[in-house]
Amino acid sequence: MPHYPPEPFRIKMVEPIRLIDPEERRAAIRQAGYNLFALRSEDVYIDLLTDSGTGAMSHHQWAAMLQGDEAYAGARSYFHLAEAVKEVFGFKFFLPTHQGRAAENILSALLIKPGQCVPSNMHFDTTDANIRARGGRPTNLVIDAAFDPQNRHPFKGNMDIQKLSAFIEQTGPENIPFGMITITNNAGGGQPVSLSNLRDTAAVYRRYQIPFFIDACRFAENAYFIKMREPGYSAKSTWEIAREIFTLADGATMSAKKDAIVNIGGLLLLNDEALYQRACNELILREGFTTYGGLAGRDLDALATGLYEGLDESYLRYRLGQTAYLAEKLLENGIPIIEPPGGHAVYLDAGRFLPHLPHSQFPGQALAVELYLRGGIRAVEIGSVMFAHPDADTGEMIYPQLELVRLALPRRVYTQSHLDYIVEILVEIAQYRENIQGYQFTYAPELLRHFTARFEPVTG
Ligand code: F0G
User: Fold this and answer.
1) Cys-Cys with 306: which of 169, 260, 293, 326 at CB 3.0–4.6 Å?
2) Which atom of ligand 1 is nearest to 187's Cα?
3) Would you state the pLDDT for residue 349?
């Protein structure tokens, strides 16, 4: 078996990409208010902004799309999806949604009362914001190793079980409408959670009768990490591992734009019938009827097919091999990253790369802007722009522990030579890193501000 397995597919359709001139890039980023989200994608050469909805569908998925049934209710495509969902997850009920945050919104709307807390290993930005939007308090209780970029713990996404128990005791289970865990832990580096930790987390929630929901966006990558790293699982299939994961929970939310390799779609999965019925009403109000949930019939078919492909082990071996390859080349060249690399992305440690910039000058944003200026590469800041917020009680600004830049790899899209180019650009940037300037906001909304904020360089 090669160390980095080649693509388990060949390419039969291509989309040209173009590196515009440095002066054009400078003008484009200035016009975008130094926010990478505001760039036109045609001005980007290699787009690592996200692995969400950016994957390449297979010919099976495209074929499935052409057979989509666009009936408003009871479409054939819905039943294809229902069958795949039953096989993969095993929950009693499910609803399609247009993407993951719609499922999070429904769950938050139905269960959270103002002032209540929702613990997790780490909530991702939309989950965090959906909880806050209902007056709730998201709480992150990941193990401390997650904050040490060089600690090669095999399951850095794990929940700190002691912290979780203590938190529940302190808060009171009656103030916790549900508990979560994110697999893999996107906000903490795309790091996996072990099955034994999932089991312990479920046991704690069960002890306090707190419903347990999994944020399952990248469950297949997490399952493959378990197969590779957790004692006792190497002979199990990713299918079996996934089923074992989901038997532990009362439900799940999923953005299908990740491990189901579709361009749009999400799922809300539940076991509780009364909750499911309330969720149906909420879905109909905001998303669409229960058998399409804001998606076209063809999207449901692509998703049904993608769920199987996302769990395919030759694909997962190649997929995690790609991130491992990029990470190894960066480390060989002295570029600081979160180690070991996660499943869907390599996270640059901008705090260590640009130590002259304080949290308040957004080192992650500065590095992301530089990647674009130097190489036409688009990445995303996962640091103070995304997560710094004033304390709910004191108003004092709380900064995240890590200032990161995520290089997310779209599924089945870029090849190893694209990865080599990214490494070359970062090596060039490293040579003049102390000259890179910080940024400050000229505009920032209250929630999910990274999407629409505008910046200017800090001069002087
Ligand atoms: N949960 C996690 C862990 C996520 O990574 C995302 C999306 C969501 C929920 C929300 O799903 O976008 O379909 O509404 N993450 C994307 C990203 C946007 O770039 O990591 P959505």
Assistant:
1) 260
2) 3
3) 96
pTM for this entry: 0.95
Alpha carbon nearest to ligand 1 atom 16, residue: 52
Using CB atoms within 10 A of its CB, is residue 13 exposed (0-12), middle (13-18) or buried (19+)? exposed
Mutate to test the pocket of ligand 1, among 126, 262, 406 (most ligand atoms within 8 A of CB): 126
Sketch the domain layout of the chain as residue ranges.
Answer: 22-51+312-457, 59-309
Distance separating the N- and C-terminal Cα atoms of the chain: 53
Is the fold of 22-51+312-457 the same as that of 59-309?
no
Is the alpha carbon torsion for 172, 177, 179, 185 positive or negative? negative
Could you read off the pLDDT of 2-33 as tens digits, one per residue? 788 999 999 999 999 999 999 999 999 999 99
Contacts of 169 (CB under 8 A, 6+ apart): none
Ligand 1, pocket residues at CB < 6 Å: 50, 52, 99-101, 124, 126-127, 182, 186, 215, 217, 255, 257, 266
22-51+312-457: CATH, from 2.40.70.10, 3.90.1150.10, 3.40.50.300, 3.40.50.700: 3.90.1150.10
Measure 112 CA to ligand 1 centroid, in angstroms.
Answer: 20
Taking the CA of residue 101 as reference, the ligand 1 atom at the shortest distance is 14
Q: What is the largest CA-CA distance in the chain?
A: 63
Third-level CATH fold of 59-309: Aspartate Aminotransferase; domain 2 (3.40.640)
Ligand 1, residues 107, 120, 125: which to mutate, most atoms within 8 A of Cβ? Answer: 125
